[in-house]
Amino acid sequence: MFKIFNLYIPAKMTLELLVDLAISILSFALATWSVYVMTVGKQDFSYWIQQGFYPLILYTALTILLYTALGVYRIDAENSLRSFLGRTSVAFAFVFFPVYWFTLMFTEAGSSFRVLAFAYLFQMALLVLIRYIFLRQTALSGMTRRILIVGNGREAQALSRQIMENHGTSYSIVGFYPTQQNDQPPVQLAGKVFDENTPLEQVVLDMRVDEIIVAVREHRGGVLPIRQLLEARILGTPVHNLPTFYERLKGEVPLESMKASWLIYGGGFTQGHIRAWAKRLFDIISASVLLLALWPIMLLAALFIKLEDRGPVFFQQERVGLFGKSFYCLKFRSMRTDAEKDGVARWASTNDNRITRIGAFIRKTRIDELPQLINVLRGEMSMVGPRPERPTFVDMLEKDIPFYAIRHSVKPGVTGWAQVRYAYGASVEDAKRKLQFDLYYVKNNSVFLDFFILFETVRVVIFGEGAR
């Protein structure tokens, strides 16, 4: 796994993307050849290559972008063939019309429909044979990293469970190296526990360990075999603590194992004038483009809201923004006008009876958030960032959750890392989990990560995933 523009990119994902790139090119080329063979005409194959060159580039680029947006490369995505083919087929459906239109408008080829139809058939066949079956049995299985967990307590148990349930194709646990944790009761570990009298560096060499993860909450008092960890590190084996490994593994920062010293001395949290200028330019351009493209949908949403109960179309609510400053967040109204007639602030819940019929639809498709593009143009929000929360909830959560105020060091967003990575929830526990994703974003924010989150938002909208 490596890091590009503050975003962790698994080696597995990189290989899959390169293979998909080759499959897309090969599928389009085979489709062009098939239509050429079936077509009786005066032009030779070089003419077809010339006419299909730019459509091929567009086809390949859009395919890879949409695979990324629809979650084809997500490590924690559903692993079934049905889900894989469903997402790749949806991507092809979005690719078809732009490539077909481009071919008709800018080339002389008259068989673009047949070429794309054959391309789809070839692409699905090659994806199943090469990508889903052959690649998983050969190259990807050889990319599994062997890790040794230092620790034998609850943290080690939770880490091993997380890896085995969600990341078994990327990591293999060779075992656990015990530490002196007298304040914790013994736990059942799913794997080999090495003898503490065996030198750790010997375990690393004998078991061909690629990485060591220190899964211990308290590091003081001689708990850790510091000298042995140093020896292993000198041998070239990377050693990571829990927050660093979880940040890379899950794209979040775990509150339970995080300390202020890690935030202070660790990397990330880069802001600066250039970053602020680039993000503001990105916000203005993307919000303007989306408003121009989506105004018909916004007009229809406003019309249906008005027809359902004759109430106001828009809903303004006080939210906490950058550095704790309040602003009024604009949304399409999705609840009854008397949703909080008693004046008590409440989180929206799943199947909330205060939500109107049209409100349920616009919430599920995120149409209710579109008026916040105006907040973006005003400079009160960004396209990407932690979701803004109400002052009442912020006061409560800052008392209950450590480091909660850190999320206010960047502008709140229309969409965010927590929204594309965490399922719907509305409670203090859900707020804690979302904060872990928000901390990852604040720590690693970049324009590249913003682009990636916007792509992921497409998946959330199409497949109804993510959080509100």
UniProtKB/TrEMBL annotation:
GO terms under cellular component: membrane
Of which family is this protein a member? Belongs to the bacterial sugar transferase family.
The uppermost taxa in this organism's lineage are: Bacteria, Pseudomonadati, Pseudomonadota, Betaproteobacteria, Burkholderiales
Q: Which UniProt keywords apply?
A: Membrane, Transferase, Transmembrane, Transmembrane helix
**By its UniProt entry, which Pfam families does this protein fall under?**
Bac_transf, CoA_binding_3
Location in or out of the cell: Membrane
**Lineage: superkingdom:** Bacteria
Q: What is this protein called?
A: Sugar transferase
Q: Does the keyword DNA damage apply?
A: no
What coarse category fits the chief subcellular location reported for this protein? membrane
